[in-house]
Specification:
The chain is α+β, with helices and mostly antiparallel strands and 455 residues long. The chain has two domains: 290 residues, 3-Layer(aba) Sandwich (Aminopeptidase); 153 residues, Alpha-Beta Plaits (2-Layer Sandwich). It is built from 15 helices and 18 strands. The chain has a six-stranded mixed β-sheet with strand order 1-2-6-3-7-17. Helix 7 packs antiparallel against helix 8 and helix 9 packs antiparallel against helix 10. The two termini are 26 Å apart. It binds zinc ion (ZN). Zinc ion binds next to loops. Zinc ion (ZN) binds next to loops.
Length: 455
């Protein structure tokens, strides 16, 4: 290992430890997160290389930070590397180590950094910053502009982060191409490692179903119109509802790219998929189901006033995730279908309606990632992936940017471990993966933005 590589490894590890220890926990309330602490760390880190940084404060404590290396050619495409600085809450009792300790532990001869955010996504936020600093130190003069954004409030609604910035500071962060979380876990196949690139994500339709009944004395429940009993039946119907199976192009390309025919065939057959999922290990079954169906998850129920009163109003909240190309009317129809003959007793209020977003695959960014990863991971190739959750990429796709989720991990990170660590217990990442991601960002910036001196 060269001196440069080992100093990169040291820097990215150190920066990640700082970000983990800052514990910018976003619990969804406006005063949580306090990402200004990590904006301080990133500002100091990036500023020391002579890079100009800008701070944007959407609300007290909710700071995001931007650093730019201006391109020499205003017509050349620009690239934004975007990492969020907030993390989701933890239950420390279920962790083997302190979730905010940022400990580096030797696991079988390899160094591993532990802590909330180690894979979602402080690892990338840190490695992107180190890459940008390395590029600045090397005198990188790209044709297109390179932008780094350490953004707040991704783990809630982006009200104090990406959405705020796009509405108020657009010129500071808008770019032709955007890379953020997540992807790049090596999936071993007979044709070499496959690296998933998230090119799209499902949409969300969060709604509240208000169930009405008639109040009465609970000592005489016979033939009463009890809203709680009706609501229980609605919850059961929604949970049991079986939406049509839809095989989307991205799912088909992902599955045929990573699985042999005997597995990819049933996973891309709308008739066979449901039963096949029943027999798969639960992790992959949930993923396969979510990538091919509109999903309905009842998550909150509230109602009743007193033990001796028959309740006349109960509200149920349902988290519905939609597939690419689906609109509100279609989703609403499915929900009404699920509720069936109980529809006259309810009112449906929708609180959020964000359609699914995706970027095309025949882009310069895809080609660039493909060239670079081919060099960094021998024999590898990219496969497109549809994410079932939401990321900040959706805001940029809606404004016309090509936005992908990517990163790069060593062979020690399995897809199964990676997916269970998102918002899960014992989140951790090996140092080799951090160094690989840093190398990736540097190489992609040079390839995509075309270094105007060296190329
Ligand atoms: Zn994330």
């Amino acid at each position: 290992m060269t001196a440069v590589e080992s100093s990169t490894e040291h820097e990215v590890t150190d920066l990640l430890q700082h970000l983990i220890r800052n514990a910018c926990v976003n619990d969804g309330t406006p005063d949580s997160g306090f990402e200004s602490r990590s904006a301080d760390v990133l500002e100091q880190y990036l500023g020391s290389s002579g890079l100009d940084t800008q701070r944007f404060r959407a609300r007290e404590g909710r700071d995001s930070i931007v650093a730019r290396i201006e391109g020499t050619d205003p017509t050349a495409p620009s690239l934004l590397l975007m990492g969020h600085t907030d993390v989701v809450p933890v239950n420390a009792d279920n962790w083997t180590r302190d979730p905010f300790g940022g400990e580096v532990v030797d696991v079988g001869g390899h160094k591993v950094v532990w802590g909330r955010g180690a894979v979602d996504m402080l690892n990338l936020t840190a490695s992107m910053a180190v890459a940008v600093k390395n590029l600045a130190r090397s005198g990188f003069r790209p044709k297109g502009t390179l932008i780094y954004l350490g953004v707040a409030d991704e783990e809630n609604m982006a009200t104090y982060g990406a959405e705020h910035l796009l509405n108020n500071e657009r010129s500071a962060i808008m770019a032709d191409a955007v890379i953020t979380e997540s992807g790049g876990v090596q999936i071993p196949t007979a044709d070499g490692p496959k690296l998933p690139v998230t090119i799209g994500e499902k949409g969300s339709y969060w709604c509240q179903v208000i169930v009405r009944g008639t109040p009465g004395h609970a000592s005489q429940p016979f033939r009463t119109d009890n809203a709680l009993v009706t609501a229980a039946e609605i919850v059961r119907r929604v949970a049991d509802y079986r939406p049509p199976t839809m095989i989307h192009e991205t799912w088909r390309d992902f599955v045929t790219g990573i699985f042999p025919k005997e597995i990819s065939d049933p996973l891309t057959d709308a008739e066979a998929l449901w039963d096949f999922c029943g027999a798969l290990p639960v992790g992959i079954a949930r993923q396969a189901h979510a990538c091919t169906h509109t999903t309905f998850a009842p998550t909150i129920i509230r109602g009743g006033t007193k033990t001796n009163v028959i309740p006349d109003e109960v509200s149920i909240e349902i988290d519905i995730r939609t597939l690419p190309g689906q609109n509100t009317a279609e989703v609403r129809k499915m929900l009404e279908h699920a509720i069936g003959d109980l529809m006259p007793m309810v009112e449906i209020l929708s609180s959020d309606d964000g359609e699914s977003t995706s970027s095309p695959r025949d882009t310069q960014l895809w080609e660039s990632l493909s060239r670079v990863t081919g060099r960094l991971v021998g024999g590898s190739s990219l496969v497109p992936f549809l994410m079932v959750g939401a990321t900040d990429a959706r805001f940029f796709r809606r404004q016309g940017s090509t936005a992908y989720g990517f990163g790069l991990f060593s062979q020690r990170m399995s897809l199964e471990d990676y997916s269970t660590m998102f918002h899960g217990n014992d989140e951790r990442v090996d140092v080799e993966s951090l160094a690989l991601s840093t190398e990736l960002w540097e190489a992609v910036a040079r390839d995509y933005l075309a270094d105007s001196i060296s190329r």
